[in-house]
């Protein structure tokens, strides 16, 4: 704690006020009966390839909403809400599914894969998704979540780097500090699953024909009684092939080395699939990972990339710019899936991960992190649950309370010293967020996952599909009832049309045959304009 406080004191109010954040939020489009919409991405929303705020994730039916970068949680949520309002006005009676676990799904082969037009970059995005469907099945890819992007201002590293003992120039110190943050986040991210996990149940269609360890409900739904986030457990974003990677986050070099092998060495099971059969492409490559984004993790080091640039190359040349938190469920009780209190807690939590001692990870510790993630995802509300810590065990609630106590000076600094840049609100919003988290540790029935099961039983006959649809319709009505000025609607409509025009320009400018484009991209040889 002494070292944490020393490092905290090195951050000026300007540093704390200069923290930036952004949100990427995935949601399935559902029909009004709670089944997956099989319609194409609505043209009124623009081009999924080029629109800066509205795209698709794996499926053509899976919208991804992206905010810009904001200095306050409130501004970030305001933009996310505005984008939601525009989308709901342009999806022709469909709804955005409120839960992370999917709505009613058809047979696997009938789940539509995202389409991005005829350009090389658009075709590559579709082929990548085709590869995901061959490797993992389409159902797993329909799970949705919220990603939180977080960064400190560049000037913070001038003072923080030396205090934390990171050598080198400002860029090297910044990169090392973000990797230290990532290591601690992976150690403690189970706490986020407990506090914010909201996927303890799933529609039976998600697992139809597959073995699972869930318990049935009379409605055709499946659940685990103490689960917090099935999305983050063995049923979610998991891969036996990737589990063998044991990627180390001790440095950019160790991280890049681990992923580089997975991106270049052929993997027998994927070699058997092949890159293509005749003129039909099946995947981008036969390596364990087609591209960097295929590596599933609770958090990623990130750097803005240039057209045609591989993410690992961008990191190697320019260092880590921000981190992307990837373990948050959609909160089905909230119209846009997340609220300001959660964002403020995340800011405190991420600063704790940054400012605390962060020893190197080891293969044994990496395996323990994975076990803790699955324990909390499947049994997090179980009384007396113990987690792996060091060479022994620690009670979830006791460990959680310890982390919250260590976060208190950070919350106080954000409330008292960061001024308008860290939130601009009177009072103690960051300390309030810690108090709410403490209440959830004291009483598991207050957690979102417990509330989901309680609401399913009380009002929806234990049907996950009925519960999810009711929440989705309520959020749609709430967002449609909010003011949406004509000039805002016109601005969004103009952005949609501009994105369509941008896609056409990209398609018209292509000169490389797709196979050459694919080979050069996989080899990291593309430059802007290819």
From TrEMBL:
Residues 16-376 form the Glutamate--cysteine ligase domain. GO terms for cellular component: cytosol. It catalyses: L-cysteine + L-glutamate + ATP = gamma-L-glutamyl-L-cysteine + ADP + phosphate + H(+). Pathway: Sulfur metabolism; glutathione biosynthesis; glutathione from L-cysteine and L-glutamate: step 1/2. It is an enzyme of class 6 (ligase). Pfam families: Glu_cys_ligase. The keyword Nucleotide-binding applies. GO terms for molecular function: ATP binding; glutamate-cysteine ligase activity; metal ion binding. It comes from the Bacteria. One of its GO terms (biological process) is glutathione biosynthetic process. Residues 1-20 are annotated as: Disordered. Its EC number is 6.3.2.2. Keywords: ATP-binding, Glutathione biosynthesis, Ligase, Nucleotide-binding. SUPFAM superfamilies: Glutamine synthetase/guanido kinase. PANTHER family: GLUTAMATE--CYSTEINE LIGASE. HAMAP family: Glu_cys_ligase. Belongs to the glutamate--cysteine ligase type 1 family. Type 1 subfamily. NCBIfam families: glu_cys_ligase (TIGR01434). This is Glutamate--cysteine ligase. The gene is gshA.
